[in-house]
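Dear support,

I submitted the protein below through the web form. The confirmation email said the job was done, but the results page showed an empty box. After a refresh the structure appeared. I'm attaching both so you can tell me whether what I see now is the final result or a partial one.
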Amino acid sequence: MEPVSLSPTSRGSARGNDVILRTTKTTRLLFRPLVIDNPHDKRASVKGWLVHQRKGINDEWADYRELRLSDLKAGESVTLELVSEALLKLVEHTQTLYQRVAEKGIPGAPVQFVELESQLGHLIRTSEPDLRNFLDAHPEEGAEALSRMLRWLSSNSGALAQVGKLEWADANSLGVLNVLAGIGTLKHALNTWESRRDDDSEAYWQGFFTRNTFALHQVFSYPVVIVQDKAYVGGKSIANTGGGIVDFLVQNEVTKNAIVVEIKTPQTLLLSSVYRDGVFPPSRDLAGAIVQVAGYRTTLIEHFRDLDFAEDKRVEIFSPRCVVVVGNSEELDTQAKKRSFELLRNGLRDVDVLTYDELFAKVKTLLRLLEEGP
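What the results page shows now:
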């Protein structure tokens, strides 16, 4: 379905884009339409010219010299063949123009539109009861169409501006749509967790939380905003080396206080082997992550005023918190391991440790609340 363009030439006419009916390396035949406001017959709103073109020296198309039919002598004629494919294209294009003028009239400014396939056009113009019956009979196709529309809306600022003009069946319709979209997003995140819980790639989980920032919000008991992923928090040497790059820099949405988040993987071990008498120390990776994120916090405080996000007041540093998302509590398969882990993380200052399964348990709770409704 090629876009169709119309550009006004007067109050009662508009020129359409050329329609190529036949082409070779050196010649082509096209139809150059003009839509008009025909006072004698409103249905007869399209006229135009068949134009034969050749490629010039500069490899650009140019109209062939005009042949005046009035110059023909007795017994002479001109035959111009339209093969079946070219004639079909001509008929379909002119039919689209007829329909556009009948529905919208002659445009007052340049416009571009796409001809709808007959099935889709019929669906859009059908009555609401018939549309409901169709969607009830084809729920999967309806859900896929809705998903595509939402992706289009979210990626097209011009289309997004039209959302406020939508006519909803009742005051709750938009709320229901938001809830359904939220449920779909949460289910997708949980399905990802179940299928990728053994994935030991930090890059993958960094990307997951970048795409699904709502999941990271479940870490906190207060509203937060993701300021930046892979954020530089200062600390480079005079040789422009070193410096701290945190996985996520987050702010408390109310106070703007900074929060430093470090992402490990679900497969990162939480504890090392037993130390003595049922005491399990933190694993090397967990201890390293805790020290690392605390170091980022110190660097952020020391270099805060030199950073970009300090100038525009996006973030404040009122004793910033640190968070490490790491491991899976299924590893804690004995009471002694659970006790050691809780003693460890509850004894930390300025650093919170949360496991992946704890985070997704909160996502599951949120999903249950949405599905159950008020």
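Response: this is the final, complete result; the empty box was a page-load delay. The first strand starts at residue 3 and ends at 10.
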